[in-house]
Write a structure and sequence with these properties.
single chain; about 20% helix
């Protein structure tokens, strides 16, 4: 996949989204998505990175448990053949749920 294809995939969920974080005081009302690439876990041999594997995180934020939004995200990921791990937490200070989808992708240059 390319970075643009991943952005299009996230957009196709149908919720507001941004890369990494919303500007201060500009976050929309939940539910919304944030996606980012926190690092890489490349394959390497002989001091060369040859399998460039990028970590992709997609975070779903909701005011209450929202099975429909989770299903929408998971449907898009499944349709794009993305294997993911899922964790959930409640952010007390924000009174929000966060569902985190973690996956690895190979990014093509094009």
């Amino acid at each position: 996949m390319t970075f643009e294809e991943i952005k299009t995939m996230v957009e196709s969920v149908g919720l507001p989204y941004t890369y990494y974080q919303w500007p201060v005081k500009e976050a929309p009302a939940p539910p919304y998505l944030i996606f980012y690439y926190p690092g890489r876990d490349d394959d390497a041999a002989d001091n060369v990175n040859y399998g460039l594997i990028t970590n992709l995180m997609i975070e779903l934020y909701t005011d209450e448990k929202d099975f429909a939004s989770e299903a929408a995200v998971e449907s898009v990921l499944t349709a794009n053949k993305m294997f993911f791990d899922k964790t959930e937490s409640y952010i007390t200070s924000e009174r929000m749920y966060e569902v985190l989808y973690e996956m690895e992708v190979t990014i093509n240059a094009n």
